[in-house]
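Changelog note: in this version the structure field was regenerated for every chain. One regenerated record is shown below for reference.
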Amino acid sequence: ASLRRTGRLLATCVPRLSPRAMPHLTGRLARRKRQCRSGSTQRSRSRIARRRGRARSGSSFGRSPQRRYDDGTRRRSRRRSRRSNSSRRSSSRSSSSSVGRRSSSSRSSSSNSSDSGTLTGRRFLKSNSMQDPLDVGTNELHWQEVRAGFVMMLANMRESSPPSEWCQPLLRSLWQSPVFSSEERRHLMRTQFKKDPTAWAPAARELEHRAHEMRASLAGDAAWDPDGLLALPRDILDGVLRALERRGCRGLGLAEVVCLPFLLYSTDTVYILRVCGLMRSLQNLHAPGLASVKSCLGEYSGVICALIESAAILRRHVPAEVRLQVLGMQTPHFLAKRQLVFRGLWLPRDFCIADLCRCYNLTSWSLWVFGALSVLEVYRCCVPEVCVAPVFLVALRSEIMRIALPTTSLYLAASPDSKPIDKIGRSSKRLPDSKLRPKRSDSGAARGEKEVILPPFSRLVPAAVVPFSDLQHGSSARGVAQHWNVGSQARRKIVQELKSAWKEARYGRKSLTKKDADRALFLIITEVSGSWFEIGPDCCDDESSGAASGEDQ
């Protein structure tokens, strides 16, 4: 700044200066330039030497993440204060009172930078935010009111009609040609339907046909699955059918209550975007209540309620100890090596953790990091431009599975392929080649994702935000594993899994780019609460009822 001022002064004074004064001013300007260059060179050399010393001693990685964050904040504050002091000294050499003002301003800027929001973006949660990270405020009250309105809407639908009729309003509205929004057109360009957009929005008759094919697969009646590789166990299927009969459903209740909602939510169609978009729009309601929630969801309200009802029935009749083997189609060997679940999101850099942990929509998690990376790859070019930071939510599988529902078997029944079936006693078998087997654009996608879903209006309790690059170091991975209350042996497995997750995300088949990896964050989740809103005499799921009572409190 002083050089620019001197140059402007010289430029304005040249016409009025005598030839005798010109060498004096130009020499003074040259001396000033040499002093600035030597000072900056000396400062940069000392800074490089300090960094090399820390790298040799290993103190940069040995310190805690919170201490590294505090040191960086102090360095940035000192640089800002040096800039302000140098500019003020060059502008005016006033009395000592100005020096006092400079010192007080530098202290205030340092305190503001260090005390800025601890629940945003690239920050570490402090001790007070770990105890109660979700402060009760306007957003919290809004979330509770919207949840209460949704529960009232679900209760009214249960009283008015059986679940087999809840999806009919949507099917009746699909008689006209589809109209896509700008966001849907961005997604359409990433699919194989960009030359035939109508195939991305199947008509009602096509959806009903797919639902019956899925029902035949789950019931073991499909001609293209003679060995029943995708069929549910007979005792579980009988329990689900009896539960549907008690709710007044017809003989095809399995197709209309279980298969059709999951088809709309899971397969590669435009309806999954609309369901998720409407559920996320609930957070923008100005007057939350029964009427506003129902009008916001429109004809998709029945689909969402049927999805919740079918998930609750499946969880109730599939025992918890075999839920991942039956519905998730995972072998004990796969589950023994993994203890964590992952969820991948594209978010802005200044995202709010408190709002992220108050969920409105059903949330999808993966049993390994490859599934989360696959989701990030699919949605990379479809999210808004401000969403540039890949964020991984990481939680214990045992904590998530208290209320989660595995969906791999349901999605494979809707979009099967010819690869081996990962099921107990059937790992070497695969579906035979048949012209009758459904051919879908996303056939077999459920194998790579290995999805489990949480109910809407779930709540997550965060513990820390860790930069993605820190997980390559053993000390940082061990610090992350300490947030979960597990034994020493399980903690060692978690450390290895975190390091493997970093390696997969950096160098695997679905790896992040160097630019995205520098922005990536890991959000550690320690607790999860929520429920599938079960009511009635056959509600015997203690875990869900306990979670629901805790959330109501």
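Spot check on this record: The CA atoms of residues 311 and 453 lie 10 Å apart. The two ends are 59 Å apart (CA to CA).
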